[in-house]
């Protein structure tokens, strides 16, 4: 356990701490979905640090302490988290979430995020989405669903998000404080893309509902949208 709180890693410090052998979160017993999610959420950003410090009900404080002292702080201090620390968290999630397979089976990252953010730590949903004028939907992360595109051989995240929103007729109701995106399925049986290029910045202008946008012909404020 590391009880001293460390800020997220950035720039040269991130390279120094995270690069090399025995770095990252050690995998064990189908933990890859949780390892990847935890690394993405906490290693180099503080946007969800409220999960670590917000005063939650006493019955859930144990999960928060494990997350902060056994996973996030060691990751930010040394760049390495042992598998037994993640297993400790998985055991607590099994107990809280009443899912007997959390310690053994591979889960969907969204299932993990919903359990820890909604049921255990009671965080407000991060995203508000609307589809085709229907009622708003609230969620914690967005999973990219799309048909195979022949022209997208090695896409970047920007392209995938735009294609997915367009094919599902979705819009963001408001600018999210945190936009967690789950990439297309990449498992043993099926791989949609061999590689995905990370977009270091994400332009959500075209994804926002009722957002003023520029006409691509004249440059004035657009009044029509051609999908």
Automatic annotation (TrEMBL):
Record has Lyase as a keyword: no
Keyword Cytoplasm: yes
Domain Peptidase C19 ubiquitin carboxyl-terminal hydrolase: 24-204
GO CC terms: microtubule; spindle
Protein keywords: Cytoplasm, Hydrolase, Microtubule
Domain of life according to the entry: Eukaryota
Signal sequence bounds: none
InterPro entries xref list: Papain-like_cys_pep_sf, Peptidase_C19_UCH, USP_CS
Gene Ontology molecular function, alphabetical: cysteine-type deubiquitinase activity
Compartments it resides in: Cytoplasm, Cytoskeleton, Spindle
GO biological process: protein deubiquitination
PANTHER family found in the cross-reference section: 40S RIBOSOMAL PROTEIN S3A
Protein known as: CYLD hydrolase
Organism: Nothocercus julius
